[in-house]
Amino acid sequence: ASARPFSTGIGVGLVGFGLFFLLFGILLYFDSVLLAFGNLLFLSGLVFIIGFRRTFTFFFQRPKLKGTSFFFGGLIVVLMRWPILGMLLEAYGFISLFRSFFPVAFGFLGSLANIPLLSQVRGDSGSMV
């Protein structure tokens, strides 16, 4: 009795497999086929989770166009079988796209567990009292 639609579960699975293939492609010395497959699975899972329109509007907002162009440019370069350069371009695009999300994610992870590095990034004193 879940309130989530069925497509959200499919999207989470696709994103999970996409991240797995990306990690596996990096571990196998930047195998371009695995990296390309991981990218496509990740993006299709994102579409299943938040919908096509919201995905499109997220990537093509005016302030995020530079990050989007680097991300998709890196995807194209990976598909052209230049995996190291493509992953560098994608990483820069990913960081510039999700720059505003990182403090929220670090704060959430730091609140789940008392992780010293994340607590220092947030600026906590480190005491549990």
Describe the structure.
With 129 residues, the chain is an all-alpha fold. Helix content is 75%, strand content 0%. The chain is built from seven helices and no strands. Helix 4 runs antiparallel to helix 5 and helix 6 crosses helix 7. It is globular. The mean pLDDT is 85.
How many individual β-strands?
0
Strand content: under 5%
Biggest sheet architecture: none
Instruction: Give the SSE string.
Output: HHHHHHH
| Count of DSSP H/I helices | 7
The first-to-last residue Cα distance is 39 Å
**Helix/sheet category:** mainly alpha
Q: Which segments are poorly predicted (pLDDT under 50) over 5 or more consecutive residues?
A: none
Which percent range fits the helix content?
over 70%
Radius of gyration: 17 Å
Name the quaternary structure: single chain
Mean pLDDT across residues: 85
What is the 3D shape?
globular
Transmembrane segments: 12-30, 36-56, 68-89, 101-118
Membrane topology: Multi-pass membrane protein
Protein name: Golgi transport 1A
Subcellular location: Golgi apparatus membrane
Supply database-style keywords.
129 residues; mainly alpha; globular; transmembrane helix; golgi apparatus; Vesicle_transpt_Got1/SFT2; membrane; Got1
What order do the helices and strands come in, and which of them pair?
Blueprint: H1 6-27, H2 32-50, H3 52-59, H4 65-79, H5 83-97, H6 102-112, H7 116-122
